[in-house]
Specification:
alpha/beta, 14 strands, elongated
């Protein structure tokens, strides 16, 4: 699942998570409104931006928040609209739906801001491991305050329940390795 980014007015209609936008767009053929602003954090977000460009949708800008600079350098396709590298969404403006988005530069003490017209804001959030299947098996779950996620209680050497083991991101440690 995806943790939705926190910013002022992030609950306005017209603001949608990247994973939800991909499902609506590719599986249900629902077209996003024009004046799209994308805020992406990974190669996954960049690929979705390319897909939207190929479909001829009206993209106002793409905000690259923490994207690898090597990925950004390969974005020859995005020459027809502004690219904001190392910027983030500060606030959304609108009453019944989003009308504008204010972004700020991450590099200079928040003094550099820019306002974009926007009817659809697609936000890529941080990926959160899905612990629900482990919960369905009856294993105990706990909230990991340090990581801000729910994780299973490890009984012994990756074991979370009788005959069930958990490794990787769902445990709160993506470096876990278990050899069976």
């Amino acid at each position: 699942s995806e943790e939705f980014p926190v910013f002022e007015n992030n609950d306005l209609p017209g603001i949608i998570g990247l994973d939800s936008a991909k499902i609506l767009f590719s599986q249900h053929n629902i077209r996003l409104k024009d004046k799209i602003v994308l805020s992406v954090k990974s190669k996954n977000g960049i690929l979705f931006a390319e897909e939207l460009c190929d479909m001829g949708l009206s993209i106002q800008a793409i905000i690259f928040e923490g994207v690898n600079s090597q990925d950004v350098n390969q974005l020859y396709k995005f020459e027809s609209f502004p690219l904001f590298v190392n910027w983030k969404v500060k606030t959304a403006i609108g009453k019944s739906t989003i009308k504008k988005v204010i972004i700020q530069n991450n590099n200079n003490n928040n003094n550099d801001i820019y306002t974009l017209d926007c009817q659809t804001l697609v936000m890529e959030g941080k990926k959160i491991p899905n612990y629900e299947l482990l919960g369905q098996t009856g294993c105990k779950l706990t909230y990991n305050i340090e990581k801000g996620i729910i994780t299973p209680v490890i009984i012994d050497d990756f074991k979370v329940n009788e005959n069930i083991y958990a490794v990787g991101d769902v445990t709160g440690n993506s470096n876990d390795v278990h050899i069976a």
